[in-house]
Design brief:
Blueprint: E1 21-22, E2 27-28, H1 31-38, E3 47-55, H2 63-77, E4 86-89, E5 99-102, H3 108-111, E6 112-116, H4 123-133, E7 145-153, E8 157-165, H5 173-178, E9 195-196, H6 204-229, H7 233-251, E10 273-280, H8 281-291, H9 295-314, E11 324-331, E12 345-352, H10 359-376, H11 378-389, H12 394-406, E13 412-417, E14 425-426, E15 429-437, E16 446-453, E17 456-463, H13 472-488
Parallel strand pairs: 1-9, 6-7, 11-13, 13-16
Antiparallel strand pairs: 2-5, 3-8, 3-15, 4-5, 7-8, 10-17, 11-12, 14-15, 16-17
Helix pairs in contact: 1-12, 7-11, 8-9, 8-13, 9-10, 9-13
C-alpha cells in the first residue's frame, strides 16, 4: 500500500518492516539489474540522476547547518529504502548472480556531500558542475548512490544533486526514492533514526545451492504456470499472442534492426556536459487536446525539433526523409511492485522524423507511430526477452549485455517520467524545479530526459562534450518546438 502522507505532513513511502530494529536480507540481482552493471564501462557510467533547485526559506540557517540537517533527515528515513545501505557482492568467477548485501561499513557522511559554486553562481555553472559529477563513476564497493548539497546559486537558491546506479532504480521508481526526503509542508519534522543492524551476506555454498535449485525448478514453475493458465485458455492465448507480436515488433522496426548512421553515435568518453530546458505542462496539455496525441507524444515531438535544430546548426545534412530512432523506456511495474526497488522497465523504439520541418507534421507522425507501437505490444515483447534471460548463467548475462550494448539499436534515449503535481519541500525550503539526468549508452553521445513537477515539464540533456559540445542548442530547440506547437494549437 502506498502512503501518500502522514499526520506530521511527510511525503512518505510505506515501510514494509516496522520493527524497532530494521534488518534486511541479501537479495539476488535480477537479470536486468545485473545487465545494467555489465553494460557499464570506463566511459559509459550507468547512473541516473536528478537536479532539484530550491528557494531557501531563511538566511538564518547556514549551509553548514543545512548539510547537517540533510544528513539527519536521511538517517531518519533511510530505513524506507533499505537498498540504499546495501552494496553489490559478486561471487568468484561469477558462478552465481551477484547479490545486494548490507554494507557493514556504511557511512552516511560519505554519501551526503556539500559543495559551493564560485561567484556569481549562475545556472550555467550549476549545469557544468552537474556534468562534472556525472563524469565520475560510483564506487562499487559501497552502496551505489551519492547526494550533493550545492550552495551559492544566484537568487538565494540552493540545489541538491542525486546520482544513483541504474541497477538500483529504473527511473520510474527513482521518483519514489527521492520522496523520502521531501515533505508536503515546510514545517514537517525530520523524524528519529531507527536502529539498524546489518545482516551478513549468504555463504557462497548456500548461494550456489540456491541457484542450482532455482535453475532445476524453473521448468517446473513454467509448467505449473502454463497448467494454471490452461484453466482460462482465452487469457493464455491472448497473453502468448501479445508477447509474440511484441517480440516481432522489437525485431522489426523502421530501417531494420540497426539504427541509422548519425553523428551522435560514436565511441563515447568519460566526460559529460549538461543543459536544461523549461516548459509548462499546461502548454503540453493544450497542444495534445488541440492537435491530438498524448503528453509523451508532445515530448517526443519537441525532442525531435531539438535534435533537428542541433544538426542543422552543426551543418549536418538533414534529408526530408531523415529519421533517428529513440529508445523510450516504459515502466512495466505493477501496482503490487510499486514500492519495490530495482528495475521493472522495458522499452519501445520510436522513430523521430528529424527531416520534417513542420512541428505539427512531426507530431502527427509520432502519434501515429506510438499508437502502432502500443498495438504491437513491443514493450511486452522486450520485457519477455529480458525475463527469459533470467534463466541464463551469470557469465552469459555479462556476455549478452556487452554484445547488446555494441549493437546500434537506437540513436538516442528519450525518457519521460511523470512527477507530483503539487508543492514539495526539503527541510523547509520550497522545491521549485526538478531536472532529470539520463545516462549515456555505449556508442550514444546524447540522452534526453523529461520530468513533470508542479505544473512544469523540465528537460535534461546529457551528452559527451566531445560529440555534442554545445548541449544548450538542443535545449533551445526543444523550447522553440514547444512554442511552435503551442502557436499552432
Amino acid at each position: 500500500m502506498r502512503e501518500l502522507g502522514s499526520p506530521d505532513g511527510r511525503f512518505a513511502i510505506a515501510s514494509v518492516n516496522r520493527s524497532k530494529e530494521h534488518r534486511t536480507m541479501s537479495e539476488q540481482l535480477s537479470a536486468l539489474d545485473n545487465a545494467f552493471l555489465e553494460l557499464e564501462t570506463e566511459s559509459a557510467h550507468n547512473m541516473v540522476g536528478s537536479l532539484a533547485i530550491f528557494e531557501r526559506e531563511s538566511d538564518e540557517i547556514s549551509f553548514e547547518e543545512l548539510h547537517a540537517r540533510l544528513i539527519a533527515l536521511i538517517e531518519a528515513r533511510i530505513h524506507r529504502v533499505p537498498r540504499f545501505r546495501q552494496r553489490v557482492v559478486r561471487a568468484p568467477f561469477d558462478i552465481v548472480p551477484p547479490e545486494w548485501v548490507d554494507d557493514a561499513g556504511f557511512n552516511i557522511e560519505y554519501h551526503v556531500r556539500r559543495t559551493a559554486l564560485p561567484s556569481p553562481g549562475r545556472e550555467s555553472q550549476l549545469f557544468a558542475y552537474l556534468g562534472h559529477i556525472m563524469s565520475r563513476p560510483l564506487d562499487r564497493s559501497k552502496p551505489l548512490w551519492e547526494i550533493y548539497l550545492v550552495e551559492g546559486l544566484e537568487g538565494d537558491r540552493g540545489a541538491v544533486i542525486q546520482k544513483t546506479h541504474h541497477a538500483l532504480v529504473d527511473g520510474i521508481s527513482a521518483v519514489d526514492i527521492g520522496t523520502v526526503l521531501l515533505d508536503f509542508a515546510p514545517d514537517a519534522p525530520i523524524g528519529t533514526p531507527e536502529a539498524w543492524k546489518p545482516s551478513p551476506g549468504r555463504p557462497l555454498a548456500e548461494r550456489v545451492l540456491s541457484r542450482t535449485f532455482q535453475l532445476m525448478t524453473s521448468p517446473r514453475r513454467a509448467v505449473n504456470a502454463i497448467r494454471g493458465a490452461l484453466q482460462s485458455p482465452e487469457d493464455l492465448a491472448s497473453a502468448i499472442q501479445e508477447r509474440a507480436t511484441g517480440i516481432g515488433s522489437v525485431l522489426r522496426t523502421k530501417g531494420g534492426i540497426v539504427a541509422p548512421d548519425c553523428v551522435l553515435n560514436q565511441r563515447i568518453g568519460p566526460h559529460r556536459k549538461y543543459a536544461g530546458a523549461r516548459t509548462m505542462l499546461e502548454d503540453f496539455k493544450r497542444i495534445k487536446n488541440s492537435l491530438g496525441g498524448t503528453v509523451n507524444d508532445v515530448v517526443l515531438a519537441a525532442t525531435t525539433g531539438g535534435l533537428r535544430h542541433f544538426l542543422i546548426e552543426r551543418g549536418e545534412p538533414v534529408a526530408p526523409d531523415a529519421f533517428l530512432r529513440a529508445m523510450v523506456p516504459v515502466s512495466v511495474r505493477t501496482d503490487e511492485e510499486h514500492l519495490a526497488l530495482g528495475n521493472r522497465v522495458s522499452a519501445m523504439f520510436a522513430t523521430l522524423p528529424i527531416g520534417v520541418a513542420d512541428p505539427v507534421e512531426v507530431l502527427e507522425a509520432i502519434k501515429s507511430e506510438t499508437a502502432d507501437l502500443k498495438q504491437s505490444h513491443q514493450a511486452l515483447g522486450a520485457e519477455f526477452l529480458i525475463e527469459m534471460s533470467g534463466f541464463a548463467p551469470a557469465t552469459l548475462h555479462a556476455l549478452g549485455a556487452r554484445m547488446m550494448g555494441r549493437g546500434r539499436l537506437f540513436n538516442v534515449t528519450v525518457s519521460n517520467v511523470p512527477g507530483p503535481q503539487f508543492q514539495l519541500y526539503l527541510l523547509g525550503s520550497k522545491l521549485v524545479e526538478a531536472f532529470p539526468v539520463v545516462p549515456l549508452a555505449e556508442g550514444g553521445g546524447l540522452s534526453v530526459g523529461a520530468t513533470s513537477y508542479n505544473g512544469g515539464i523540465y528537460f535534461g540533456i546529457n551528452a559527451d562534450p566531445a560529440i555534442v559540445p554545445d548541449v544548450g542548442i538542443i535545449a533551445e530547440g526543444i523550447e522553440k518546438s514547444v512554442a511552435e506547437l503551442l502557436a499552432a494549437a
